[in-house]
Amino acid sequence: MTPLCWEKFIRFFESRGYKCLAPTWPYKDKPFEALRNNPPPELARLGVTEIVDHYEKIIKTQEERPILIGHSFGGLFVQLLLDRGLGAAGVAIDSVPPKGVLPLQWTVLRSIAGVLLKWRAWKRIVYMSFSEFQYALVHTLPLAEQKAAYDRHVVPETGRIFFQAGLAPLDPHNAVRVNFNNADRAPLLLIAGTEDHLVPVSMNKSNYAKYKGSAAQTDFKEFTGRTHWIIAQDGWEEVAEYIADWLERLPNKKV
Fold this sequence. Notes:
The protein is α/β, with parallel strands linked by helices.
């Protein structure tokens, strides 16, 4: 994906008076067609740590601590950034889980099989086919909407991050490790969709349960009938409204 997937959320939160930033991942700050047809070779070497370091630098240039909102891998990055002491609050939507939550569900394995079974994909650029996108993200949507979303949003991606997340128990560098008991981190809201194939609601609940021993505020919300495309499918407004209300209720909030 590119930051274009946030266009609806950006309009919503800007209408609420927020200043919104949706910076790209490293090497993806190019026009959509260029990314799709001629992805930069450096993308193949991009990993979780490099992406999170990239966002840390951006966050530190802001005049005040920002609210961090991420979806899928972005949800994992939000958790990692909060653990580093960054952000005033964080929202992780359908989040790829940190180390300690095993992604062993059948729908997860089927969703990412095209990457995991590709020869040496951990050091290559990968590209999701329409059928893979259809199953993993938009399987309940009408076919025309599925195709429109694919044509508008899907670009080649680094394969490395899928292996870092999927094989986290074997990763000696702990690229996706979070200190679940970090009492000093900012409040975190985890959001899940009941129809999500890529990050099933059970995985989100397991992620949430890991924070049970922490003194830092951690909340969870489940939305019925939502796929992994929860931030853009019909009904996305309900998700955005819930996040906005949650932010308003935070103690010592800054808006």
